[in-house]
Design a protein that fits this description.
With 298 residues, the chain is mostly beta strands. The protein is elongated, with a radius of gyration of 28 Å.
Length: 298
């Protein structure tokens, strides 16, 4: 009985010890970029950040490693910065204080933390970041962000995260009148609209209205008004039979990251459409015989 009790106490002690292991920090950022590997930073002293685990109480210290290779991210081997254990509760805007970084280079970093009760985590997963041109003297305006080609066809922005695109199906499709279809997405933006249409006539003209609001009769709100309500009109023709169509909205320069110079140099292959605040899409046949046009959105 005493042996069993002794074994149970040892087991409880081991389990308690494992339960006190502090998880590593997560959601690393560089210059507030969640995925700096898909951008370039132009600050020669970038700032790092991370999320302290919710189960760890309060942070009391951190240890950052920065290296020119992920294989050098070890204490005593990090060739650019080894902060050592730094007593600090901060986990946002931690400035780089190592050897000078070079423009147009690749680097890796990771961090481990301590909690106020003395628990120590292991190091986080490494995060890569790329540096761009540190010389900002030739900018057209403060805060300008240019396109940079990291690799063949891999274009990213300076100090900004590129938008990511997701595909959404419409929540509903209404037919307020014969040959007229309204698709409601109830999402804040549409960049590319895909649909399949069937018509018995070649060169059948239709008009596509994309808007942020709809009327009670299930038609798209077409008046931007003073509040600049999102609306766009696209005219196109359909081919005889059943075909799949991809409607790309007209190009508009992204605010704050595009100039005439960058637009001229921007490859056509990455000139993706800028999303608009269009939640509704409606299709109108432009001729009576087009009433037989069937539009299926997906």
């Amino acid at each position: 009985m005493k042996k069993s009790s002794h074994f149970l106490l040892c087991l409880l002690f081991v389990l308690r010890g494992f339960s006190q292991i502090l998880p590593p920090p997560t959601d690393l950022t560089c210059e507030l970029l969640r995925a700096p590997e898909a951008a370039v930073v132009t600050d020669p002293s970038p700032e790092f950040g991370w999320v302290f685990p919710q189960t760890g109480g309060k942070q009391s210290a951190y240890h950052i490693l920065v290296a020119s290779s992920p294989f050098l991210l070890q204490e005593g081997k990090a060739d650019l910065w080894d902060s050592g254990k730094t007593e600090d509760s901060g986990s946002v805007n931690i400035s780089y204080e190592g050897k000078p970084l070079a423009s147009f280079s690749n680097y890796w970093w990771q961090v481990k933390i301590w909690a106020s009760d003395g628990q120590e985590s292991v190091y986080s997963m490494p995060q890569a970041f790329h540096t761009g041109n540190f010389d900002r003297s030739g900018l057209d305006y403060p805060g300008q962000s240019n396109w940079v080609e990291l690799g063949t066809g891999n274009w990213v922005s300076e100090d900004r995260q590129c938008a990511s695109f997701q595909r959404f199906d419409p929540l509903y499709v209404k037919t307020p009148a014969p040959g007229i279809y309204l698709a409601g997405f109830e999402k804040s933006a549409i960049g590319i609209l895909e649909f399949t249409a069937t018509t018995s006539e070649d060169h059948t003209p239709i008009t596509v209205h994309l808007g942020e609001r709809k009327y009670e009769n299930f038609s798209v709100h077409k008046d931007p008004g003073k509040s600049n309500i999102g609306y766009e009109k696209v005219e196109m023709t359909l081919k005889k039979g059943t075909h799949h169509y991809v409607l790309r909205l007209a190009q508009r320069p992204p605010h704050g990251i595009s100039t005439p110079k960058t637009r001229a140099a921007l490859p056509r292959s990455i000139a993706f459409p800028v999303c608009r605040n269009n939640r509704q899409s409606s299709f109108f046949p432009d001729q009576p015989h087009a009433a037989g046009c069937i539009v299926l959105l997906f």
